[in-house]
Amino acid sequence: MDIEKLDYNDAVDSLCTKIGIEYDSATRSMGIKRKIHDKTLISEIYNLNAKLIKVFVFFLNNNQKILSYILQERRISREIVDLFNIGYLLCDVVGKSSFYDFLVSKGYSSSILSKSGLFASRREKFSILSGRLIFPIKDFKGNVVGFGGRILGKDNGSKYINLSETRVFKKRELLYGFYEGLSMIKETRSIILTEGYIDVLAFFTAGIKIAVSTLGTSFSTQHLALIKRYADKILICFDDDMAGLVATFKAYQICLPFNIDVSVIRMKYGVDPADVLKNKGVSVLSNMVNDSCDAFEYLLEKYSLKYDLNKTTDLNSMVNLFINLIGLSSTNTQRDLLLSKLESKLGVKLETLRKDYYSMREKKAIASYKKNACSYEVNTYERYLLVALLKDFNYFTIIRRNINDSDLYDIDVKKIFVCFENLFDNNNSFSLFNLKELLKNKYGSISEIFFENMLRVEFEVDDEMVKQILFAIKKRKVENRILAFKEMIKNYVSIDAKAQIRELMFLNMQRENLRIYLNE
């Protein structure tokens, strides 16, 4: 770049021509323009939503009936209504000026309105939130990314509705109330997971400012990832009905592999937190948080009432349900603790439960392997290399000089190669028996099955074939790195230009001078 006095684009273009990589500067320019367009669109949506809050709040404060519903009937405090910017959207009336026309008159284009998620796709001038209580939804940074609406009175429509997903509104990545409660969530390292927006407002009114809810979707790993950044404990507070129990079970399933403390708040005084606040008041709802128990113990208690444990079929069903749940444990200590709790609740011997547990794991592993694994046939050159190695251990030193396990894509081949390395590094004798035992102990019976099938493969092995396979693997590694740089260039990933060019030149030189190192 400095020698030839070229700018970055021309230097990369020249280098790509020399090493055979296509580089379309026009495509790159389009990529930059697309990113600028995306940023502009996001900024416009944020701007629109921030102004809409003021409109919705104005409509609420000027509608005494709706305001009375939220303050008196639902008993949400004025402080919390203001904190969450709760609003209201008037009903669109056919034949009269609509909310859509109002926004257009304020300078918003039909293009941005169509991308805001506010309006129905088939009736573009009809707001899907028309006639509803409005809940602004913010991301963890405080940007208003969308809105939810709750119907008032008796209507055939859905009780709750959210905007369609947009460039910034991703339901499975957002939690209502998370931003408003973030300071307390950080301070307490705890969070309460509820089912609805009003439940969140109820807890905040009771002074418990760590409550959140999903946006009409099931609790997901994306939600958990957000929570784990700021909290170590989750208190689940779902509705006290069968649907709430199932939702609690599913949420616990998601949390269990990630070793996070999960408890459940018992619903003794109402169907949900909003119901408790409405009928029992602030103090009862506030004290409910202290009546929580371990999530696994809660589920055991609830499901033991659902099943007739005096019947063998029901007992087996519950054992299978919880054995599969325990299978998600992140550590052996956690697994053993949960198995002990299951033993205490059901009266089934721990030894029996352990056998059921390992039997379940074995069946799942074999079923998954049969479903997803490649054919046992030698259908890749990596497997040819493995068969050659199993027939003649002397090839291992040659193979190891040229590649390592990270160069292998076939998972099953990689496992056996790692076992070879372990035997080699520990100065153990190379034998099929030692290799098989190590493989079984390290990776389980699935890898043992693959190993035995590879042993049955018959074909003649020669030095030239092994060299060609090693050459192909090394070439693939270099070419994949070149492809990765090609994508970085195409997508304009901002990295040091000089370093990028040097790396491309080095990779090209590697590709041109590939060789196989033998023992000599």
Please, could you describe this protein's structure?
It is a single chain. The protein has a five-stranded mixed sheet with strand order 6-5-7-8-9. Strands 1-2-3-4 form a four-stranded antiparallel sheet, with helices on one face. It has 23 helices and nine strands. With 520 residues, the chain is of the alpha/beta class. The protein is flat and about 90 Å long. The longest helix has 37 residues, at 25-61. The protein folds into five domains: 8-40, no CATH class; 41-168, Alpha-Beta Complex (DNA primase DNAg catalytic core, N-terminal domain); 170-305, Dna Topoisomerase Vi A Subunit, Chain: A, domain 2 (3-Layer(aba) Sandwich); 307-372; 381-512, Orthogonal Bundle (DNAb Helicase, Chain A).
Number of domains: 5
Number of E-state strands = 9
- Outline, from the CA principal axes? flat
Approximately how much helix is present in the residues? 55-70%
Low-confidence stretches: 1-6, 26-33, 372-379
Q: Beta-sheet strand percentage?
A: 5-15%
Q: End-to-end span in angstroms?
A: 41 Å
Q: In DSSP terms, counting alpha (H) and pi (I) runs of 4 or more, how many helices?
A: 23
Radius of gyration: 31 Å
- What is the mean predicted local confidence, pLDDT? 81
The fold-level CATH name of the largest domain is: Dna Topoisomerase Vi A Subunit, Chain: A, domain 2
Features:
23 helices, four-stranded antiparallel β-sheet, flat, Dna Topoisomerase Vi A Subunit, Chain: A, domain 2, five-stranded mixed β-sheet, about 525 residues, alpha/beta, 5 domains, DNA primase DNAg catalytic core, N-terminal domain, single chain
